[in-house]
Queue: 2 jobs
Job 1
Amino acid sequence: MADALISVLLERLVSITYEYVEGELKHVLNVKEDVEKFTRTLRVIRAVLEDAERRQVTDQAVKIWLDELKDISYQMVDVLDEWNTDILKQQVEKREREGDPNALVTKKKVRFSRCFCFGKVSRVILRRDIALKIKYLNDKLTEVYEERKKYQFQSKELGIQQPQQPQRPQTASFVDISEIFGRENEKKDLITNLLSDSSAEGKGLLIIPIVGMGGMGKTTLTQLAYNDDRVKSHFEIRKWVCVSDPFDEIKIAKAISGDYAPSSNELDEVLQCMSRSIQGKRFLLVLDDVWTDDPKKWKQLKVPLFQSGAEGSRILVTTRKLEVANMMRATRNMINLGGLSDEYCLSIFNHMAFSDRDGHESKVFGDISKEIVKKCKGLPLAAKTLGSLMQNKTKMGEWKEVLNSKIWDLETVEQEVFQPLFLSYYDLSPTIKCCLLYCAIFPKDYEIERDDLINLWMAQDYVISKKSEEKGTTGDAVFDNLVARSFFQDFEKNRNTGTITSCKMHDIVHDFVQFLTKNECLIMDHTECTTSESKLLGDKVRHLTLRYFLDGPLAISSNNCQKLRTLATFDSRITTIDSNLILQLKCLRTLNLSGNSIKELPEEIGELKHLRHIDLSFNCILEKLPDTICGLYNLSTLRLVWCSELKKLPENMGNLINLKHLYVLLCGRLASFPKGIGRLTSLQTLDLCHCDGNNNEAFQIGDLRKLNLEGSLAIHLVGDATDKSEVEKAQLWDKKLFHLTVYFERQTNSSSSSVEILNALRPHPDLESLKILYHNGTTWPNWMQSLHNLRFLTLVGGTQCELWPLGKLEYLETLTLRSMDGVRKVGVEFLGLEDQTSFRIRSPQILFPKLKRLWFGLMLNWEEWEGVEEWTKEDSEITIMPCLSQLTITGCPLLKALPDFVFKTPLQTLRILRSERLLERYQEGNGEWAKISATNPNIRIIRDR
Ligand SMILES: *[C@@H]1O[C@H](CO)[C@@H](O)[C@H](O)[C@H]1NC(C)=O
Ligand SMILES: *[C@@H]1O[C@H](CO)[C@@H](O)[C@H](O)[C@H]1NC(C)=O
Ligand SMILES: *[C@@H]1O[C@H](CO)[C@@H](O)[C@H](O)[C@H]1NC(C)=O
Ligand SMILES: *[C@@H]1O[C@H](CO)[C@@H](O)[C@H](O)[C@H]1NC(C)=O
Ligand SMILES: *[C@@H]1O[C@H](CO)[C@@H](O)[C@H](O)[C@H]1NC(C)=O
């Protein structure tokens, strides 16, 4: 943790700008010199951190030293943040003084300038304060620096092999068959793959990666296959090489050459020899525990292997990193090893615990064994370790003790189960380590949303942005990295795009990160807190998660809150938060009070100037936010999802110049935004934008112009003043939006028709997904056909009785149509034809060329879906929906039949729900149904009765 924290701090220290401290203080205190000295010292210390972090596990004195160092680092981060915030404040005030042409009422100006005169004096004091703090921290660091000599740490720069480096276990091909449980299917598949005649690619050599987290049994499975009799007789040569880190080509090549290996360390010679030893032979090579994903290293080895081996040769690779399989371009044959069932874990456990004992004991401890095994969460290594731990325990008390202890408190678990995880952990960069450890704030088995998590990392300054456009480590990259290294699992993916939207952590991994952050991250249940909580909340705690706090004010009577950087509640229903508590939380970065019953927040929240992330979502009785929130210049995320009683946002929101993400979805009473939001030039995410045309004082759609929105945007148009010239001012086409939703207020009498408004809303040409709700018009917007990336389209409501000619959209993959009461008939116009005969005069056409999924819902008056008569002819020159695989019709009670062309598509799933007439017509077994099955035998029909 210290390593990660300090690396991030150093990055910040080198990018400081000093112009701000020039002036008043220059002659009194030399901030620049102090910061530079601090940086130099910290650099030297960083060199020994790796050693120190490893030794702290066993050496208490080292741990204390490290804690002191971390403390200083955290304080320095806070000082730098204060400094930055102050610069920001100056910017805001400067802007106010110079006057914002965009709408500053005179009254406000006056107030601000008074503020400014007053501010000048306090500013000098503040700066002096900052300078003094830096000087103090500098002295403290020097002490720590001196003290380090006592411990004789190994410095990284010296290149000495770390004596404490966790042992990478050397694996061998030997396997004790009696210890294998489960994995029957994996074994069968693997052996089939090894023995199959020719590889799928038609090449001689096949690479099979086995990927999974540490302790999952990859090596064991490989050993099983390697020692299988059929495998033994099939291959002329079998070699087992334990690769580990670093990837040493020479060592590996020598291992393959076996007895013929030359003594030379000349790569070329060694490779030649390796080639000769396998020349023309069918070989099986196991590369166990590969870590490198450097294609250069791999290529050197791969080329001679591919050239020399005979047809049918195989390379088995075990690894924890998906990147390795990617690098080898072998993901096609990959075996992904997940957890075992509890039954299998129990077998392993019993085997280890009771194999030398009489059956009586296994009966006595049978039930408790089952409970203990649940802690393993499918990880065979954990079952094995716990099993061996119980081997000579004979008293019930001893068994109960293990059952009731936290898994990491058991020393053997720490040593053995965490061992493989430590290896993965040490392989991460400092930033990614920080990000991983931060996940300790979530309760076990919690479903973590990708975007939330990335925002949280940003709030702690671990990563600098979400997307890959800015330089530096980005949240997306870190997330994908942790996924690829098996730290996350149980993914939910976006149905359309396939990107991972949420994940969980394996329990053992969660235990592991909690173990590593033991003093810094704390999850506290209400019951634990009512007793002696000041003891529980140690002075090192930085991230506090509270659970099960019931109705009533949130008050923690502890003096150790000053250092908190995260405060979050889960499964709680607090009604207020004590203002004295708030005042203590001076260092807080993230405040998550989502899901409580808070009506009002104390004004004191404005004092928490480091706050970057506030989550007040799902507080259904929250009525307003204190104005003081507008002084949190560093605030970057404000989440207010489903605050259904919230009527307005604070008037001065425009001052939050760092605000990047604002979430206000499902705030039913929020009808408009303050004008100032138009000045938030950093704003990237705005999940729903309220544009009230009736209220000139409020945010108008044209005010979107200055925002740097990216990703997705939803616009809610209210009132009759939304005319097209106002809409055009938004210049939406300049914003890199991928998803756009336009929501018309249902009863509106705007001066422009809704199609005129839509025309003015022309989006960026890269738009991928579009949703329009309650549009009232039969002509489609004039930019529709120029959206060459449009893949997802949803149309909801509206009074139009004809559908747009959507078949002309060449790139459309998913089309959803819902609640269009006006529609009685879907004619050929929908496909993009003018009438039944128009296609005759044209050249061959493909209608809906890329459409895969088509969904009609709640079209209550829809009776007829017209087919294309001429289309059935042999020489027809049109093709309709050649990619369609799913069609859903739900809640269309009057629709009589589906057109014939539907059944000529490669349709696989047809869902008919709550649509009586269709259900009757296509009943299984009747004539119509038989006809369909004959045309398209692959079709699967799903109905609701
Ligand atoms: C806080 O403000 C500083 C100064 O502008 C900035 O560098 C930093 O990124 C801000 N933090 C966040 C989370 O936006
Ligand atoms: C059995 O328990 C004793 C202490 O009671 C311990 O020293 C010994 O190492 C244990 N043996 C095994 C195999 O765990
Ligand atoms: C905030 O807490 C709620 C549960 O109370 C959780 O669902 C949400 O993911 C948390 N948000 C963040 C950003 O941590
Ligand atoms: C529509 O316009 C009329 C007259 O301009 C106005 O009286 C009425 O309130 C408006 N209706 C709505 C729903 O805005
Ligand atoms: C839809 O538009 C027509 C004219 O184009 C108008 O008469 C009708 O009132 C509109 N309906 C709604 C609900 O706005």
Note: The chain has 30 helices and 31 strands.
Job 2
Amino acid sequence: MIAENIYEVKEKIKRKCAEVNRDISEIKLIAVSKNFGIEEIEEAFNEGVIDFGENRAQELDIKFSRLGNKITWHFIGNLQRNKVRFVVNSSDYIHSVDSLLIATEINKRAGLINKIQKVLLQVNTTNEETKSGLTDYNEIKDLANYCMDFPNIELIGLMTIGPLTDDINLIRKSFSQLRKIKNRLNADNININELSMGMTSDYEIAIEEGSTMLRIGSAIFGQRDYSTSWKEKL
Ligand SMILES: *Cc1c(COP(=O)(O)O)cnc(C)c1O
């Protein structure tokens, strides 16, 4: 099942890239494995997927201890300061940085283990109050500049979560806004390239709007079952 799903997702990505004249090699497929177990991850890994995304520090920590460095780990969830240590230890990329407090802690923890931590800033492009992420351009720029100055952080891009809606125009607007913010930062001498946007329901639109990192969960692993805790699946 997972193998077929991956094949299909990759085919759709390929087709969309051909349609909008994009080079497929500039798009990273991240399999979001939250709430799935080690076996499912192994199965996807055996199909050639090496990037996996997790949104809980503790869940990532356990999966990292079982599977280790053969996988490229992406942390995509809300980050609390007291969990930063674990996430820096396991993640190749942290997509969800949205405060100076967290960035400062990441820099400190990465320094302690001699690591340069790759990060993206999370932007709230939908103005939903319940969502994490920065909204104001100057705040984004200020935090980006701090990250550029931190010796143990490498700022590589921006991340957003599209709106939960069927309205394609609203989804497109959210993604094109992220791209415009990146272009504006580039013009302000902040040299970042990555756009982490697009999930199961909207990744084809994200490709059209310039995404370089797709975070895809249910299209690969199936519906997440929240009736049992992730702890019981590990
Ligand atoms: C769960 C999650 C995804 C993947 O969602 P699907 O709809 O299952 O593809 C992507 N990004 C973030 C931040 C998530 O929490």
Note: The pocket of pyridoxal-5'-phosphate is lined by residues 32, 34, 55, 76, 161, 199-201, 215-219 (CB under 6 Å).
